[in-house]
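To close the chapter, one final illustration. This time we ask the reader to focus less on the individual chains and more on the assembly as a whole: which components sit near each other, and how the overall shape emerges from the parts.
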Amino acid sequence: MVSIKDLAKHLDISIGTVSRALNDKPDVNKQTREKVLQAADNLGYVANQSGRSLRQGTTNAIGFLIESGADTEGNSDNFFMGVIDGLQSELSKHKLDLLVLPCSTDENPENYVKRMVARQLVDGMIISATHTIDKRIDFLSKSKLPFVALGQSETGKNHPWIDLDFEGVARVSIDRFVKNGHRRIAIALSANELNLGSIFLKSYKDSLKRHNIEFSPELVLQANSNDKGGYAIADELLNLNDRPTAILLVHELMAHGLYRRLAEDGLVVGRDLAVIGFRNSAQARMFSPSLTSFKLSLRDLGIALAASLLSTMPAYQKHYSGKMLSQIWPMEIVDGESDAEKIPKNLT
Amino acid sequence: MVSIKDLAKHLDISIGTVSRALNDKPDVNKQTREKVLQAADNLGYVANQSGRSLRQGTTNAIGFLIESGADTEGNSDNFFMGVIDGLQSELSKHKLDLLVLPCSTDENPENYVKRMVARQLVDGMIISATHTIDKRIDFLSKSKLPFVALGQSETGKNHPWIDLDFEGVARVSIDRFVKNGHRRIAIALSANELNLGSIFLKSYKDSLKRHNIEFSPELVLQANSNDKGGYAIADELLNLNDRPTAILLVHELMAHGLYRRLAEDGLVVGRDLAVIGFRNSAQARMFSPSLTSFKLSLRDLGIALAASLLSTMPAYQKHYSGKMLSQIWPMEIVDGESDAEKIPKNLT
DNA sequence: CTGAAAGCGCTTACAG
DNA sequence: CTGAAAGCGCTTACAG
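The assembled structure is written out below.
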């Protein structure tokens, strides 16, 4: 690996001049700069990041913290690829690289964040899967490392965040159900402590109240955000004495198990039970009858996250207005057949 | 951020001793070590990675190169989460962190690799999505950075790699089709230069020959590995004069569009056209009629990739036999309904 | 416009 | 068992 010393020796100038030429500093002779750039290219020189980081205290990299692990398979993962694409497109404008940091399910997320911060391999972080009480946020706030959260949290309200519009999705869905004649509406939540669950539930309750529908705790079902969870939920739902005629899912993948369980009893989604899923993901688009759900641009979301983060970092904030630090990300309903019929037959 | 200097000053000993204590070096007084560990914990000290890297020439991190971008959404992405989980579980045994390095679709993959290598932020790399001719492999071989490829390539045969058993999948599928009475069998390939395509096609051809079936170029269909691609392929297939009765897909997501296009003509998968997909992914499991496909443990694949990489790295190879540098990863067929009927009706 | 030098935070021979 | 010092590869005031 060729170092700045090698390059300087090869050109017979000092490493200081080489460095200045390479980093576009003023006060470098044009011809000298040309020669340096040329030689760097020839010898394949690229500055060692460790040396640079140590000196500057900056890494030119941004970390994106995600949760990996078996649970996630087929779940939130394809969500991230789109977001990553958007993040990169914004970060690359500033020559920042994106490092995706997967926190294994074996590891405590707070410890993982601590380790990643201590390693000092990124200048800023994007965290995801925020919990209602999220120790990572406390830690990051204390550590002074710039960060933005994908997802809201009750913890530390002074940081930038962007969250999908769970409130709006629940509101629009319930309104739609009610408009189609439903009065007994269930909600399926994730069996975890992610903050989005409480927002979703609150909006559900508020919407019911608006329509003068009494809230029934038995209509709040909880399971994993996947096929199995959906199956379990359908099972539970079918065993209720007074069955709901509609259900709102916090995650579209639940629809799979739900469709399947209903089919086992010869029940048809849309006719016998109205269903609205969450995100109109690639997988959601595969359902038949098609699932009513909500779409968003993952790429734009990634761009917004990057912009939000950069606008808090002194070195970059000049490029950003800094006005939109936190925001609710809108989602647009996509009509499907899963809640098509206005007055569904009762489940029999 | 507390440095080793701070810690040493706080304990009133030299930084050398602190470093030795922290790094489990011999010849440190037991009590001294205790005190250092205690103080490090109290002050939240973790060694700065840049300082350590600069001195040691090692980063204690492994990079996993994947391709991000819009194309990938809902495609190969959920494949990676499982692999990442396995990688981490093996790497964490050696206190190595995993950095996922997403190469944006905007960027030339070779340039990206060069940049990541030059940055010197990882001690080894896992690359994926290998092309038949893959310049990244040449570059990595030259750069002396240890790496392992997920996928075979014609380029540089002396590196370790692990590849899914595309050959076996195609062979088993064709044998199965033939056993069920099919003679006119199509194959759907990806419209890219990934090496897996040529392996898949070769195995398809070889299998046909084994059964004395003549190869028809018109039965080799190409499209993107997604819903749309599958739709296009079905469309093309329906327009053939002498339609095939069976089709083998290189990617299971193609099945979605294929199912959809067939349904438009009132045709039923399994009855009117036998279909075998590729991986029995979470998404593949959602098809109805269920898709015959092949399963594998992504986690175990990740573990094997990590082991393969580490066994080439001097610092870690003592833990590995080094016998299984390269391997074909077996996949097991999962019976579905998509190729159930022995003699399908002809497409009408 | 350029060079010499300091110093970022570590680890590791080398003395003692 | 411990300390003092060198040096990894950079960038950046400071002189000239």
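Residues 13-17, 20, 27-29, 32, 51, 53-57 of chain B lie near DNA strand D (CB under 10 Å from a C1'). Chain B has three domains: 4-47, 61-159+297-324, 166-295. With these observations in hand, you are ready for the problems at the end of the chapter.
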